[in-house]
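SUBJECT: protein chain
CONTENTS: sequence, structure tokens:
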Amino acid sequence: MKKHIMILAVIVCCLSLFGCGDSQEQEPVSEIAVTTSPTPEAAEEPEVDNSEIRIQKQREESIPYQLLGNLESSKEIKSGDGSKHIGYNGYVKANKSDFMALSYKEIQELNAYIEGLGEKENYFTIVFEDGTGIVYAGCSALFPDYGKISGDYEYVITDSYGIISDTGSYFVLLDDNDQPITEDTNPFGVNGIQ
């Protein structure tokens, strides 16, 4: 009886190894050689959780991640006198033209990713090469702020040009009166950002 259980355990382990991995076609297994020895019962191996690896691979293959590069850059936030640690702000430096080429869906994916950083970041900034950027206060994509970015390490808005709004099919920049800055309904980038 123990011999049959041992054989089944080995077969299950072998099948689980062949069942995991990438989706490339593999040669079918025609025969599995099983050897047994009169050793004590083998200790069960812990299951390997590949979900984190799969999520990281999907993230790296996504267009927003490739475009913006390392989204995990963080800087420590200190109190005004520099004596207390308040938290961290995440940021990434990106080309504005590349960001503006993102589709509506890709910006939604990017926003979802940034919102996921909220557990460890107080806010997140996309810094563009022209000194402007988008700040996600509290890492929330509800109303990101677009404007001139401070040149210091905090990357905060010093002059707001408007709030970015999701209309359900495109993104648009709103003025102080919550009115669209432009009538454009382009499904790429954020309408109103120059």
Notes: The first strand starts at residue 74 and ends at 78. The radius of gyration is 25 Å. Strands lie at 74-78, 85-94, 123-128, 132-137, 145-149, 157-166, 171-174, 190-191.
